[in-house]
Amino acid sequence: MGDLGIFASKFSINSKSLKEFDNAFHYLRNIALITKTPKEKEMIDKLLSVVYPISEAIKGKLSDSTVINERSILEILKVRHDKEWPTYKERILKLNFKLNSDQFRFSNDDLLLLNDIANALDAECVNLFRRMSEK
Prior knowledge:
mainly alpha; 135 residues; globular; 5 helices
């Protein structure tokens, strides 16, 4: 597979992940107490498909994710939050822990963090599309 094919494949996968992440975020953000009903669990799993690999990368572990390039997304987040990076990484780890809890409430900080992650995933899609256009 040539460079164009690789970028196209990554773009397709990342775009699908972004759409699912965004849909899950919009579904869950207005629920007062998340108790992991089957639908809520499905939506949380879509969030975790992005948040978990990023958390693993923060811990220095290799991820087996085929859904996103967590290193690229982490780099985008690091550039955007450079001055607060140590604290910001901790917030991501806490969010990952919260998403794995039996029940929880999203705080405003959690919602802002999820939005930041969605924006970083979107930026990765834009980068991939730009690279495809250059080929």
